[in-house]
Amino acid sequence: MWVGGHSIKYLTVANACTLAVVNRTTRMKKTFKEIFFKYKQPDNQFDKNRHRFDSIIADNRFSFLECIYKRLFAKDTTLTDTEILDSYFKFSGNIQTNTFAAAEFEWAAISVLCHFRPNLTETLIRRGLLSIVYSLGEDIDWFTVGQFINRRILADNAEPYGGLPPNVGQEWLKNLLPAQKDTVQMVLMDVIEENRNELENI
Which uninterrupted H or E stretch holds 7? Predict the structure, then answer.
C-alpha cells in the first residue's frame, strides 16, 4: 500500500528512524548540558562557543580527538594519517543527534584536522556533507554548504551545537575551505548519489 507517494514499509522505517533520532538527540543534549555547565561560563557568545567546543572535546565521553589535536598543535611528526582518521571516525560515530546539530558538530571538529592535514580533506568532509544533505535535501551545492557553515557556525550570533573550534579551525572554515569549492562539490555529488542508493534499498 502507498500513502502520499511512499510505501507503508518506507513510512514505518522513516517513522521509526525519526523517533530514534529524537531519543538520541534528547540524550545527547542532556550530556552536553552536563559537560558545558560543569565550569564557570564566559560572558560573551564567542567565548561561550569556544568554551563549549573545548569542554566537549576534553570530556572523556568524547575525547577521541583531544590527544590528536594536542599532537597536531605540537607538530608531532610521528602522528600518522591513519591515527587521525581512526580517532575521527570514533568521535563521529558517537555523535547522536539531529542532522543540523550533527552537521555543525562535524564541521567544527574536522576543521582543525583539515587545517593541519589538507590531504585528508576529501575523506573528512564526507560525513559533514552527508549531515547537511540530511538536513537540507539533495538540491544543494558547494555554495549552500558555505552558507550553512557561515550562518550556523561562524556568524557572530550563532550558537553551534558543538561550539566554535580554535583559530586554525575557524581560519580553515572561513578561508581555506571556500578555496576548495571544486573538491567540496565533487565529494558532495558523490555523497548525494550514495545517499540515493541507500534510500532505494530500504
Answer: strand 6-7
Q: What are the angstrom distances between the C-alpha of 119 and each of 30, 80, 176, 195? A: 36, 12, 13, 24
Which pLDDT belongs to residue 40?
59
Q: Look at strands 2-3 and 6-7 and give their pairing.
A: antiparallel
In angstroms, the CA 82 to CA 88 distance is 10
pLDDT at 156: 93
The reported pLDDT for the residue numbered 103 is 96
Instruction: Write phi, then psi, for 160 (nearest 5 degrees).
Output: -60, 140
User: Would you list the domain boundaries of the chain?
Assistant: 31-200
Calculate mean pLDDT across residues 16-24: 49
| For range 141-163, the mean pLDDT | 96
Average pLDDT (144-153) is 97
Per-residue pLDDT, 26: 55
CA separation for the pair 91, 106 (Å, rounded): 9
Q: Give the helix/strand (H/E) hosting 2.
A: strand 2-3
Q: Which residues contact 151 (CB under 8 A, 6 or more apart)?
A: 158
Report angle CA 49, 37, 160 to the nearest 5 degrees: 25
- Report which DSSP code applies to 39: S
78/188 Cα distance (integer angstroms): 31
User: Are 45 and 34 spatial neighbours (Cβ–Cβ below 8 Å)?
Assistant: no
Residue 198: predicted pLDDT: 84
